[in-house]
Design goal:
Elements lengths: L1 H12 L3 H13 L4 H21 L5 H14 L4 H6 L8 E6 L7 H12 L3 E4 L6 H11 L3 E5 L7 H12 L7 E5 L5 H7 L3 E3 L2 H12 L2
Helix pairs in contact: 1-2, 1-3, 2-4, 3-4, 4-6, 6-10, 7-8
Length: 213
């Protein structure tokens, strides 16, 4: 089992999408749990890719291609992952990129991975006004609200939404996760968010942690 999972992570690292697809199908056919394939194959490869990017061994185009590869191929696992959650209540998550920000590649990957992990995800897209986040939160009462900001000029919107949740009296009902290129753990603490996701893998991990509290 370990061999094929390592092959999947290595194929992600080498950006071979067709090979990843073939290996995912093979792993499922061999009876390997979809959750194991996701955590020990796909996301492991993506994390190694991210580590190499952080060390300067790889560059932004590699990360973009890798993220798109995982976003495309994870769909093979989704039916198997969601099926295992059918008998349980699926936790609801609202996610979007804040107003003024048109970048959504990272957010889209988080959406895909959250859905693959069994969450019911309401994707509000990009350039989402504060009022729309609040309106949707009041309407759906999700367990989690995830906000992405990719520019220093838009990250303040995350603070504004959290403050508005407090004014509406629903902040204590909803856990908030923030992420994006200029975002840090310190910023998340400063604005009163519940968690910070450095990347898609950590965002999903933090989501799982928060709903277990």
């Amino acid at each position: 089992m370990t061999d094929i999972l390592n092959e999947i992570s290595e194929a992600v690292l080498s950006l071979e999408e067709e090979k990843v697809r073939e290996l995912l199908e093979k792993a499922l056919k061999n009876g390997i749990e979809a959750s194991s394939i996701l955590s020990e194959g796909l996301t492991k490869g993506l994390r190694i890719l991210g580590d190499k990017f952080s060390c300067g061994e790889l560059f932004i185009p590699h990360m973009m291609i890798g993220a798109e590869l995982v976003q495309n191929t994870i769909k093979i696992l989704e039916p198997h992952l969601i099926k295992s959650k059918e008998k349980d209540k699926r936790e609801k998550v609202i996610i979007g990129t804040v107003e003024g920000d048109l970048h959504d590649l990272g957010k889209n990957l988080v959406v895909t991975m959250l859905r693959a992990s069994g969450f019911e995800v309401i994707d509000m897209g990009r350039d989402v006004p504060n009022t729309e986040f609040i309106k949707k939160a009041r309407e759906l009462r999700p367990c989690l609200l995830c906000m992405s900001a990719l520019m220093t000029t838009t990250m303040i919107r995350q603070r504004e939404v959290i403050e508005k949740l407090k004014e509406e009296g629903i902040r204590n009902e909803i856990k908030v996760i923030v992420g994006g290129a200029p975002i840090s753990k310190q910023w998340a603490m400063e604005i009163g968010a519940d968690a910070y996701g450095e990347d898609a893998i950590e965002a999903v991990s933090e989501s799982k942690r928060l709903i277990s509290l």
